[in-house]
Structures are given as C-alpha cells and as structure tokens.
Amino acid sequence: MILSSMRDVVFGYGKEPVIDQLSLDIHVGEFVGITGPNGSAKTTILKLLLGLLQPWSGTVHMDAQTVRGSKLNIGFKSEQEAVVERSLREVGMWEYRNARVGELSGGQKQRICIARALAGEPQVLVLDEPTTGMDRRSREGFYDLMRHYADVHGLTIIMVTHGLEEMGDRLDRTIILERQERTIALILLVFLLIGISAQKLIARYNRDLANVHTLVPPGTEPHDWEPTPQDIASIEKADVLVYNGAGMESWIDQVTDSLSNAKLIQVEASHGIDLLEGSEEDEHEHADTTDTHDHADDATTEEHDHNAEAEEAHTHDHDHGGLDPHVWLSPALAVKEVRNIEAGLAKAAPEHAEQFKQNADTYVAKLEALDQAFKAAVTDSKRKDFITQHAAFAYLAQEYGLQQVPIAGLSPEQEPSAAQMAAVIDFAKEHQVKTIFFETLVSSKVSETIANEVGAKTAVLNPIEGLSEEEIAEGLDYIGVMRQNLEALKLALNE
C-alpha cells in the first residue's frame, strides 16, 4: 500500500528550482533512506511530504488513514508514562530521565527527541539526520532499533542520512538525490578573459556552485571554430551562455535560435562597448598614410535593446557586420566584459550575487593594475607604431595612443595580397621598424618573410584567442599573457 507519493514535483527557493520533476512513492512499513550531497534538497523533500512546504507544481499526497482505517499519526502525541519509559529505554536514555537538557550531549539530545517521537506510537516516523552527535555504537543500535520497529510494529520510517555504509542492509530502499548544479557554457572564451574570469567569479567562494564548460578546445583558433552537435547539446542544458559577441561567433544566432531552453541566460561580454570598424577592405590602407588604423575618430557605438547589466543579453541581433570583436585586448575594456559576466551570473543565481560581485571586484582590481602598467609603459616610448600579424590590437592601440599596422585583416588566417605585403614592407623600412610581431596559433611564415626583407626580428604579440600546449603547461591566464604582451611591446616601442 502506498502511504505517500510525489508526482512531477517542482519546488525551489527564490527563482531557482532545487527539485525538478520529482516522482516517488513511500510504501507502508518501509524503512526508507534518503541520501545525497549537501544542497541536494533532502530536507526539502521531507517538508514537502509533511505538507510544511507546497510545491510550485506537481502533487504531494500523504494517506490520512492507516491500513486499519484509523487516523494516521505522525509525531509525538501520547503522554502515557509506560510508553514513555519504554521509548527512553529503547534509545538508551532511561538513566537520564531526570537530567536537565543542558547536561545532555548533542547525541543524547537527539535520542531524547527520537524517544519522544516513538512515545507517540506513530505509524510514520520522519527523521532528518537523527544520528548527528551519536557515537558509532549508538548509531548502530539506533539503526537496529529502527529496523525492529519497521519489522515488528509496521512503522513506516523515512530518514535522511549520510550513513549508508553503516546501515548495511537495514534499509528497504534508498533514494539517492543529486545536487542540481548550474552549468555555464563559455563560448569563444578560449581567449581566456571570459573563461578565466567566469571561473574565478564562481570558484573563489563556492566551488560547487557551477560547472564551467569551455566549448572551444585548447589550442584551437576560434575565428573558424563552430560547435558540434554535442556542443549544442551542452548549450541546451546550460543555465548561462557567455560569448564575446561583436561578430566573433558567426554561428551564434543560428545556434541559439534552434534551442528550446527558454530559461537560458545569454551574456554578450562585449555589450555596451563602443565597437570599432574592422572591415577587411580597410585594413591595408596604411600604404599612403600612417594613421589610417587609428580608429578613434570612426569608432562606432552599437545600439542595443538591453541594458549594461546583461538583463536582456539574449534579445538583440548578434550580427555586427564588419566590426572588430577583439575588445578583450584592452584591459580597460576587459573590465567591462567582467562586469557583464558578473551581471549574467547574478541573474542566473541571485542568491550568490554578492559572492560574484566580490570575485569580480578582485579580478577587476588586477585588470586596473594591468591597465596602469600599459599606460606607464607607452607614455615615454620612442615610437607609437607596431606591425602585427593580424588586425587584433585596434582597441589596445586606441586605448594607449598607439598605431597598429596589421599584415592581415581581422582573421589571422587571411593571406595578404602582394600589394598588401609591399605596403607593410614599405612602412617598416620608412619607419625603421625593428620587430615584426606574430602569434602562436597560426603560421608565422608571413611575418618571418617581412622581417627577413627589412632586416627585423620577430616576436610574439598574443591576441589571446587560444592557448598553445606550452602556454597551458605554464599555467598562463589572461593577466599573465597580457603582461608578456606588455613586455614585448615595451621592447619594440623603444628600439
């Protein structure tokens, strides 16, 4: 006979469900253990079964009649002296019957509470971690006693416990709960700023709060990367999707439009940042002038339909046309990206908003220190221009009054034409450029060709779009790579 049942129950605190579509049955005379990690809603299930909480949806039923047709008794009701004495003796507390509460240990208090419940001669006994504070011998005796009550008296026992190994085969059935963890799918984010900052925002105070999953594999150039069906399935299950935006992920609209997860919070990290034009046709006009790539005058502001707190980051059109997506390479703009991520996480888990803010503040302080280091390094530098493999550093150049001269366009794998190569070579000779920068995830052949032509050396200026195996082994993150970039620029700008 089914004593209690739950059907498709959904319940939570605040806006977040902690129980989702749970169904179970408790039979008369069963000794049932409920177990699971902290935060898996074990106690919440007990309260729902007892009617102390009402589900958001679904049904909870507790049969109000016993097998014999009498009223179901849950908890302590009897004051009969003989029954009380028997119950105290059964839990080993008869000798403490006259002791004051303050004289009892935690385990002894637990046994007194259990004795009071048994003295009521209930048909159902609901226990939440009843052996807390008991020693091993007392726990073993208690488990045997509960087994006896289930077998001899037909008592239905529902008990939350972490002691499954100790209980052996005393339980009739075990209900194992799993913590419903949040999953945050990080897209592009191999460029580290978003990947690292999101993990730091989550992990510093509560490592169990979320699973952070970076979809773009390490060592992969993200401009041409697209998600696999398995990646899309991961996004479908996620609570939060973080991506750079500004046209970096050409596939984002098609993928998100195909999702059925209406609760997915989408965070465009570059939201609210004035985006620079970056059309491929304009990248090599420096042949006739040396300041074509100073985009300060033609920077464009993308109008969005949502606010800077990422409240509605999923509602606007992601197609930014020929805009430059490399905003993270300016530490000052990286601060804005971190704040957008913070806002998205806080929306997904408002109960942890203060933790996210504290972590964001810590990371932002590091970014601001990095920003000041860049400003100090370029203030008195001998030159303000640098040649780099592709047009990734316009935001950094604008922020610090520099001029990037890219060999290729926005995509690092774009092959420059003969005319473009000639223009860069002419610029390098005219301005006596001593260093030609390249990056780690694509071939350095073009940079080396130009360097050989003009008698310059090559060095790495990392756009942080991915990590090489060596960088991963070194444990580098965004701050570390940007400081390497800073040192490389300091040398090149003072030759």
From TrEMBL:
Region annotation Disordered: residue ranges?
280-325
What is the name of the protein in this document? Answer: ABC transporter domain-containing protein
Q: What is the lineage of its organism?
A: Eukaryota, Sar, Stramenopiles, Oomycota, Peronosporomycetes
Basic and acidic residues biased stretches? 284-323
Task: Identify the residues that the record assigns to the ABC transporter domain, covering every copy.
Answer: 4-204
Q: Which family does it belong to?
A: Belongs to the bacterial solute-binding protein 9 family.
Record bears the keyword Nucleotide-binding = yes
The UniProt record lists the keyword Nucleotide-binding: yes
Alphabetically, the GO molecular function entries are:
ATP binding; ATP hydrolysis activity; metal ion binding
Q: Which PANTHER family match?
A: HIGH-AFFINITY ZINC UPTAKE SYSTEM PROTEIN ZNUA, HIGH-AFFINITY ZINC UPTAKE SYSTEM PROTEIN ZNUA-RELATED
**GO biological process terms held by the UniProt record:** cell adhesion; metal ion transport
| SMART domains xref list | AAA
Tell me the keywords, alphabetical order: ATP-binding, Nucleotide-binding, Signal, Transport
Q: What CDD domains does the database record attribute to this sequence?
A: AdcA (cd01017)
